[in-house]
Specification:
The structure holds two protein chains of two kinds. Chain A is mainly alpha-helical. In chain A, helix 3 packs antiparallel against helix 5, helix 8 runs antiparallel to helix 9 and helix 10 runs antiparallel to helix 11. The relative contact order of chain A is 0.12. The N terminus and C terminus of chain A are likely disordered. By secondary structure, chain B is an all-alpha fold. Chain B is about 75% helix and about 0% strand. The C terminus of chain B is likely disordered. Classes of the chains: A mainly alpha, B mainly alpha. At the A-B interface, helix 3, helix 7, helix 8, helix 10 and helix 11 of A face helix 6, helix 7, helix 8 and helix 9 of B.
């Protein structure tokens, strides 16, 4: 077999560069956030945390949502009409679109920005924020769950779908208990006063998150069985994103009910940004895999180095190894 | 005698007729291995077989014929063949995923594409998988160095 020379560095705007940029941005934000939290703990300065989480956090979230949507659309269009994955990625792209639209509405009308408040009356403000929450909540998660359902079906058809392990039922049971408890609390409150729109939304979102957790665990077991590759990394990123969304959701709930100090609650809410990052990285990795397969070894060489993936060298597969992987 | 991948693909596209189609259908009912291979071929095209363009079918057939004529099939067999192909698939599907896909491949590589191509098409799309398969075939036909 001919051995090709490694190609020059990736061109500007290539998926390799964008994936690297996404990973750098998220890592940088996490590190700076951790430093700000640590510093404010020492000095007990709540304002610095508020400032850190608000404006840079808003901008980064919107950017990550935008980049994620961009790659989602590219992946969706790269699958041809009639291919099973096309519908899955279409639904994932719908989820990303809904998430971006919801984030824009929430950030514009939910954070109390003076310009936005002046432009819309208080009732319209609440309505727009509610629409944003629905788009970023129910619609986004329902579309994502539908997309991942199709992905899991394709995994099963390809013979790559793994089974849940006994330990996987622990988080499912814990989160299930959390949903039941939340529902019971809502019913109790309903006896005293009517539930707010936000409470109704939470009641609908959490069961969707439970479905997403189940899907993420199945995908996680399946990609672990397949080993490190672009496809596995892509769906592993979705799993990470879902886990972080659940963490953020649980921390917000705990903070609202006073189960955690506000600082821990703020750190829990901080998980939403790495979650947005994971949802942006996932389609970027899928796009990179498709691009590299289409163009050849050229981009594969660079990406393998960047993501520490196996290179195009023959693997040492004995008969025993082949059997063990089944 | 087991049908080759070209016959399975033609059957999947509805190009076989009469006695040949009946014989193949009867064989698929009785042979689990061929039935599994046929399922894989049809699996990736299941959603819209009618939308497959004529030139795409011709291109696929051309690739399959190239594979049948490839010297790799004569020179490389068994583990050596699987190692070569697994090396090309691992960056996409992972090592274990690639090996699992190659596990049912026969010693002479006769059913290689029918095992590999449908799964690749599912995960990477027809266009990207087609190019990857083409390169695998090209690489195999210029192979001169033993592993």
């Amino acid at each position: 077999m001919q051995i090709r020379k490694p190609p020059p560095a990736g061109k500007s705007g290539s998926p390799v560069r964008r994936t690297k940029l996404l990973l750098l941005a998220i890592t940088g934000y996490v590190v700076i956030g951790a430093l700000v939290v640590a510093a404010s703990r020492l000095g007990n300065d709540a304002a610095s945390i508020e400032a850190f989480f608000r404006i840079p956090g808003v901008l980064l979230t919107l950017w990550l949502c935008g980049v994620g949507l961009h790659f989602n659309l590219r992946v969706w269009r790269a699958f041809e009409s009639g291919e099973p994955m096309r519908m899955a990625w279409k639904l994932i792209a719908v989820s990303a679109t809904s998430g971006l639209a919801g984030s824009v509405l929430i950030q514009l009308f939910g954070t109390g920005l003076p310009a936005a408040s002046a432009a819309a009356g208080s009732s319209r403000l609440a309505m727009l924020r509610g629409v944003g929450m629905a788009l970023d909540g129910q619609f986004r998660f329902a579309a994502l769950a539908a997309g991942l359902f199709l992905v899991l079906r394709i995994y099963r058809r390809a013979g790559c779908l793994a089974r849940l392990r006994a330990i996987d039922w622990v988080p499912l049971a814990v989160f299930g208990a959390f949903i039941v408890r939340e529902a019971v609390e809502a019913v109790q409150r309903w006896g005293i006063h009517p539930l707010s729109a936000r409470e109704w939304m939470n009641l609908q979102v959490d069961p969707l998150l439970w479905i997403l957790l189940w899907q993420a665990l199945l995908l996680f077991r399946s990609v672990r069985r397949m080993g490190k590759g672009w496809i596995s990394q892509c769906y592993a990123a979705f799993c990470l994103g879902i886990a972080l969304v659940l963490l953020g959701d649980a921390a917000t709930w705990a903070g609202n009910w006073g189960y955690l100090p506000w600082l821990c609650s703020a750190v829990g809410a901080y998980a939403w940004i790495p979650a947005a990052g994971a949802f942006a990285v996932a389609p970027a990795l899928q796009w990179e895999a498709m691009r590299s397969a289409t163009l050849g070894d050229a981009t594969a060489g660079q990406s393998s180095k960047l993501l520490n993936l196996p290179a195009h060298a023959p693997v040492s597969a004995s008969r025993g190894h082949l059997r063990a992987c089944r | 005698m087991h049908p080759d991948i070209e016959a399975l693909a033609r059957h999947a596209f509805g190009e076989l007729a009469g006695a040949a189609a009946r014989e193949l259908t009867r064989h698929l009912r009785g042979c689990q291995e061929c039935h599994a291979a046929y399922q894989r071929v049809t699996g990736s095209l299941e959603a819209a077989p009618a939308k497959v363009e004529r030139h795409e079918v011709d291109a696929l057939m051309s690739k399959l014929r190239t594979w049948d004529a490839s010297p790799l099939r004569i020179r490389l067999k068994g583990d050596a063949l699987k190692r070569r192909v697994a090396g090309a698939l691992a960056p996409y599907l992972g090592r274990a995923g690639a090996n699992a896909l190659l596990d049912p491949v026969q010693e002479d590589g006769g059913n290689l594409l029918s095992n590999v191509a449908p799964a690749l098409t599912m995960f990477l799309g027809r266009r990207a998988a087609g190019n990857l398969v083409s390169r695998m075939i090209q690489d195999s036909t210029i192979t001169n160095v033993p592993l």
